[in-house]
């Protein structure tokens, strides 16, 4: 057993089991939304809270889990995540109304948060700097595998085994992952520091308020009472959080991390990249539906994006170990910009191959960008801060997802209405609104390239010292 715990690639295999669970579950659940709305006799707006609650809870608790991981040990919190995710999946399969699904999904997000915040920390603690990019590339590949097989698996389960089966599949994966992690992942004691409850609470409140404002502000009205309350709550508790973190002896988020240029600009690049990415992934299915593709065929077309990432991400990780993140991430962001600008030229007569080529190019750009960027961020901090660094990275990723969907939806809707006001027919107005949203996402990718370029290059000597080599 001790020999297994010293084999870094075997340790990585245990981490990848947990990594693949979230993307599979998320994509399978999204596929099931229309069916769940029919089964529980509810509308799409109510059903959407199955995903919204999950995303809000996941994003708001990530920093807390990162801090706890640094304190109690990454392995322990990772295993807690596997147990929580598996148990809540079993409970979800027994749901008898839509509200039970929504509430239990919030608790499932607690388990997912533990898994997502600890995986990069375990990998970074296990692998030397010379192989960290490669290992994180395999982690990114696991995410792509989950996103790729999720829609197909979800369609099969819903068709032949019923909606409850989409939650059953998490249970054996979680049990296997827990046992394998217990066997192969080495224990780490964590740091003997006190937990910061007031910082954790204020972070949870300001993140929840911000994400609610971003995701629901368009529905409520940006100047409505609910939107104003959400925005003010965010501002008040964000200020409170910063004050608390400066005053407490052991802050939940060590604000001195932002003095590290690699950390700050790497996370900013992550936020912007996921804003652009989720604008594309949110809007493109509407285009495919408008063209006339079936749901199954649309799923296959959209899969071309994560499938390409599956191949590119590990290769990019290997290259980042040799050449660093600065140039690779910048090139990757520029390629995603080109892909988004090219998608703005799509029409209702575009062939499936032309759409898939653009999505494939987008996958190449994201695959080149993400792994070096993640490796750069995780390599910029000391070992006793890997948990919070991993969690902050995941928070930026999830915030980017919410911002991207909100941004894409707002731009598309407003521009489509503008073009319709000019007496342009509905199909043309649809395409023009979509074009504008893709162009704005492309501009954000260019900004992402700039934030990637201005980061410092990793000083290998300092990097080795941080990792205790």
From TrEMBL:
<feature type="transmembrane region" description="Helical">
    <location>
        <begin position="390"/>
        <end position="412"/>
    </location>
</feature>
<keyword id="KW-1133">Transmembrane helix</keyword>
<dbReference type="InterPro" id="IPR004638">
    <property type="entry name" value="EmrB-like"/>
</dbReference>
<dbReference type="GO" id="GO:0022857">
    <property type="term" value="F:transmembrane transporter activity"/>
</dbReference>
<feature type="transmembrane region" description="Helical">
    <location>
        <begin position="135"/>
        <end position="160"/>
    </location>
</feature>
<feature type="domain" description="Major facilitator superfamily (MFS) profile">
    <location>
        <begin position="11"/>
        <end position="460"/>
    </location>
</feature>
<dbReference type="InterPro" id="IPR011701">
    <property type="entry name" value="MFS"/>
</dbReference>
<feature type="transmembrane region" description="Helical">
    <location>
        <begin position="432"/>
        <end position="454"/>
    </location>
</feature>
<feature type="transmembrane region" description="Helical">
    <location>
        <begin position="352"/>
        <end position="369"/>
    </location>
</feature>
<dbReference type="GO" id="GO:0005886">
    <property type="term" value="C:plasma membrane"/>
</dbReference>
<feature type="transmembrane region" description="Helical">
    <location>
        <begin position="9"/>
        <end position="28"/>
    </location>
</feature>
<feature type="transmembrane region" description="Helical">
    <location>
        <begin position="220"/>
        <end position="244"/>
    </location>
</feature>
<feature type="transmembrane region" description="Helical">
    <location>
        <begin position="300"/>
        <end position="320"/>
    </location>
</feature>
<feature type="transmembrane region" description="Helical">
    <location>
        <begin position="100"/>
        <end position="123"/>
    </location>
</feature>
<feature type="transmembrane region" description="Helical">
    <location>
        <begin position="327"/>
        <end position="346"/>
    </location>
</feature>
<keyword id="KW-0813">Transport</keyword>
<feature type="transmembrane region" description="Helical">
    <location>
        <begin position="265"/>
        <end position="288"/>
    </location>
</feature>
<feature type="transmembrane region" description="Helical">
    <location>
        <begin position="48"/>
        <end position="65"/>
    </location>
</feature>
<keyword id="KW-0812">Transmembrane</keyword>
<protein>
    <submittedName>
        <fullName>EmrB/QacA subfamily drug resistance transporter</fullName>
    </submittedName>
</protein>
<feature type="transmembrane region" description="Helical">
    <location>
        <begin position="197"/>
        <end position="214"/>
    </location>
</feature>
<keyword id="KW-0472">Membrane</keyword>
<feature type="transmembrane region" description="Helical">
    <location>
        <begin position="77"/>
        <end position="94"/>
    </location>
</feature>
<keyword id="KW-1003">Cell membrane</keyword>
<feature type="transmembrane region" description="Helical">
    <location>
        <begin position="166"/>
        <end position="185"/>
    </location>
</feature>
<dbReference type="InterPro" id="IPR020846">
    <property type="entry name" value="MFS_dom"/>
</dbReference>
<dbReference type="Pfam" id="PF07690">
    <property type="entry name" value="MFS_1"/>
</dbReference>
<dbReference type="InterPro" id="IPR036259">
    <property type="entry name" value="MFS_trans_sf"/>
</dbReference>
């Amino acid at each position: 057993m001790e020999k297994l715990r010293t084999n870094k690639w075997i340790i990585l295999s245990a981490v990848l089991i947990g990594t693949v669970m979230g993307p599979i579950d998320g994509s399978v659940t999204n596929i099931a939304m229309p069916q769940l709305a029919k089964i529980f006799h509810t509308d799409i707006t109510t059903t959407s809270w199955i995903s919204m609650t999950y995303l809000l809870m996941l994003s708001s608790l990530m920093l807390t889990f990162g801090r706890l991981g640094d304190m109690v040990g990454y392995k322990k919190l990772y295993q807690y995540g596997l147990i929580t995710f598996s148990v809540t999946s079993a409970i979800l399969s027994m749901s008898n109304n839509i509200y039970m699904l929504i509430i239990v999904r919030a608790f499932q997000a607690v388990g997912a948060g533990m898994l997502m915040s600890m995986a990069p920390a375990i990998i970074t603690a296990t692998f030397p700097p010379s192989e960290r990019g490669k290992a994180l590339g395999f982690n990114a590949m696991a995410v792509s595998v989950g996103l790729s097989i999720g829609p197909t698996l979800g369609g099969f389960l819903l068709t032949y085994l019923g909606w409850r089966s989409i939650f059953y599949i998490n249970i054996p994966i979680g049990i296997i992952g827990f046992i394998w992690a217990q066997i192969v992942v080495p224990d780490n004691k964590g740091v003997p520091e006190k937990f910061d409850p007031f910082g954790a609470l204020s972070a949870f409140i300001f993140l929840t308020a911000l994400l609610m404002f971003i995701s629901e502000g368009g529905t409520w009205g940006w100047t409505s009472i609910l939107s104003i309350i959400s925005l003010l709550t965010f501002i008040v508790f964000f200020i409170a959080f910063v004050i608390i973190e400066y005053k407490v002896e052991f802050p939940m988020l060590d604000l001195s991390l932002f003095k590290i240029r690699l950390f700050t600009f790497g996370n900013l690049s992550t936020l912007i990249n996921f804003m652009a990415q989720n604008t594309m992934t949110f809007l493109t299915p509407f285009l495919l539906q408008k063209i006339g593709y079936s749901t199954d065929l649309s799923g296959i077309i959209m899969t071309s994006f994560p499938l390409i990432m599956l191949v590119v991400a590990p290769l990019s990780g290997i290259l980042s170990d040799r050449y660093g993140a600065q140039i690779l991430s910048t090139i990757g962001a520029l390629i995603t910009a080109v892909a988004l600008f090219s998608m703005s030229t799509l029409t209702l007569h575009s062939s499936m191959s032309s759409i898939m080529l653009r999505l494939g190019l987008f996958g190449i750009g994201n695959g080149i960008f993400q792994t070096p960027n993640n490796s750069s961020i995780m390599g910029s901090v000391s070992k006793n801060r890997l948990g919070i660094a991993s969690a902050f990275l995941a928070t930026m990723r999830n915030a980017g997802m919410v911002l991207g969907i909100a941004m894409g939806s707002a731009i598309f809707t407003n521009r489509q209405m503008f073009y319709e006001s000019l007496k342009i027919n509905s199909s043309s107005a649809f395409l023009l609104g979509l074009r504008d949203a893709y162009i704005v996402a492309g501009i954000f990718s260019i900004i992402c390239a700039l934030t990637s370029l201005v980061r410092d290059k990793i000083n290998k000597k300092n990097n080795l010292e941080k990792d205790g080599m």
